[in-house]
Specification:
10 strands, three-stranded antiparallel beta sheet
Length: 170
């Protein structure tokens, strides 16, 4: 049996093992989230730009983080509503437009591949959907609706895993 404390320790240890040398840390507190996130920089080889852009309207519950045309991350604040992941998984299973394959599923996130079969070719895209609980708030995090390549989704997963509360030291 694993306690929540053990699980969060395991997540923290797995974060330490991830190599973030092609990433820059961004503080999100100026945008209303008491957290940090690692975003790929121009050395990542995915078309990331020198400047990360974080779009957020004051008082809104949505954020868009962009590091060039190939890296887009969307964050939405769901307050204390804890049922977003099971709702998302039910919707994913119920949809019938795409052939969907779950690549990896953990408590906090799911990575899946979507395929649209067209008469001439098969089009595959990769997606991340995740929930992070930070300072009493559930944040939904996902990549763009159109999906990304497998290489880009690996960077998006690393960013998702790096999303954590700001360590406030007194």
């Amino acid at each position: 049996m694993i306690s929540c404390a053990d699980e969060s320790d395991a997540v923290a240890k797995s974060q330490e093992l991830i190599d973030y040398y092609q990433f820059d840390e961004h503080l999100l507190d100026v945008y209303g989230i008491d957290a940090t996130i690692m975003i790929p920089n121009e050395t990542a080889g995915i078309g990331a730009s020198f400047e990360t852009e974080i779009l957020h309207d004051d008082g809104d519950f949505k954020w868009h983080i962009s590091a060039g045309r190939n890296f887009n991350l969307y964050i939405e604040d769901y307050g204390d509503y804890q049922y977003r992941m099971p709702e998302f998984l039910r919707k994913l299973e119920a949809q019938d437009i795409f052939k969907t394959e779950i690549i990896e599923q953990k408590d906090e996130y799911v990575i899946y591949k979507r395929e649209l079969n067209m008469s001439s070719k098969k089009i595959s895209t990769y997606h991340l959907y995740g929930i992070k609980y930070i300072n009493g708030v559930y944040y939904e995090i996902k990549n763009k609706e159109a999906g990304d390549s497998e290489k880009v989704i690996d960077f998006i997963l690393k960013s998702f895993l790096s999303f954590k509360p700001i360590n406030i030291q007194s």
